[in-house]
Amino acid sequence: MIGKLNHVAIAVPDLAAAAAQYRDTLGAKVSAPNDEPDHGVTVVFVELPNAKIELLHPLGEGSPIAPFLERNPSGGIHHICFEVDDILAARDKLKADGARVLGDGEPKTGAHGKPVLFLHPKDFCGTLIELEQA
Ligand code: CO
Description:
Elements: E1 5-11, H1 15-25, E2 29-30, E3 34-36, E4 41-47, E5 52-58, H2 66-71, E6 76-84, H3 87-96, E7 108-109, E8 115-119, E9 129-133
Parallel strand pairs: 1-5, 6-9
Antiparallel strand pairs: 1-6, 2-4, 3-4, 4-5, 7-8, 8-9
């Protein structure tokens, strides 16, 4: 059911430092910071040949990644995103198999303007999983 790895999202306490590290030390292609107020994050996209890394930093009050950074002050992997062809079919199969879909279970528009859902980390080896209809 799941297809390509779309991205790995890493919450970082210092976005400029993290972007510089990926650009200068790791030699990756790195975007300018993008504010995404609807998602409470500023994102730097790191483009790899086979997937993206998204460096996330809290934006505004009540950012969904602020509590994560409080627990992980030096940063850490926040979620991974797999592509699916049909997000509603994927959701229905997951729910039938007992996996918990976060929120009201309806896909939301994600950071790339496509429908996304998140799955409870306790159901997937402690990893928050995002599904994106590619
Ligand atoms: Co994501």
